[in-house]
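Can't paste images in this forum, so I'm doing it all in text. The chain is below; anyone willing to post the predicted structure tokens underneath?
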Amino acid sequence: MSLQQAGSGHPVAGRAQDAADRRVLLEALVSSQDRAGSVRFGAVLCATLVCLVASVAVALFPTARDLQRRNAATLGAAAAAGRSAPETSPAAPSAGSTSLPAVTHVNRQLTGPGSACCWAKGGDWESVPHGGYPDFRTPAASSTDPNAWFEWSLGAPTGGRRWDRLKIRVWIPDTQASASVRYTVTTSQANGSEVRSFDVAQQDYQGWYELAAIFSIGTPDRRTGSVWVRVTYPHPADGSSAAQCPGGFCPSMAASQVEFAWS
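Text version of the structure:
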């Protein structure tokens, strides 16, 4: 065997083997780099996702904290309000405030035939032994005089309040009451007087008839005026003194009691 053959073998075969070895080494290096690149890409992608989640959390957490702070502030204010003014306790009136007395109409004054005070009559009237309050068993009066009138007033009773909320009702007898009449209420106060009229067909009612109004003769706490109720035949709106009676004949007009009520 020659020296060249002993040192390197066959020249062509050695070079082919060397080339194959280099390809294997190169492929191994490339595969290693690809795996490293994949690992690095995965790491970068993971880091990116973590950063995105962290950013969303950072954006949301302050809102949650703000809500907690607002809720805590609301609860604290409600607790403070509850300590200072419980719902079960009425609010104390402010200095200088006043409340009006309740309207009860428990105070009453009855006047008319059978009582000694506060009624009068004019014209021709006939006394009737029954027909008045209560139970139509007390005296009443009737008239067919076109100019007749019957009047009641409050007088001077004591006690009570709410003189700005007076109620009035009239008792209509069950006999001798066949006319359409007019009840005229005059109230007076320190600042003047007021007149209101109410037309009532007596033949359609018996017993108490409440006038559809509230009257004032003072303040809630003090009486400053008075009141009168007068019953007559209606007169024409043109101011004529002649009563409106069918065919010039006036049916029977009745009068008995009037009740004033205040609180």
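The chain has a mean pLDDT of 76. The first helix runs from residue 3 to 8.
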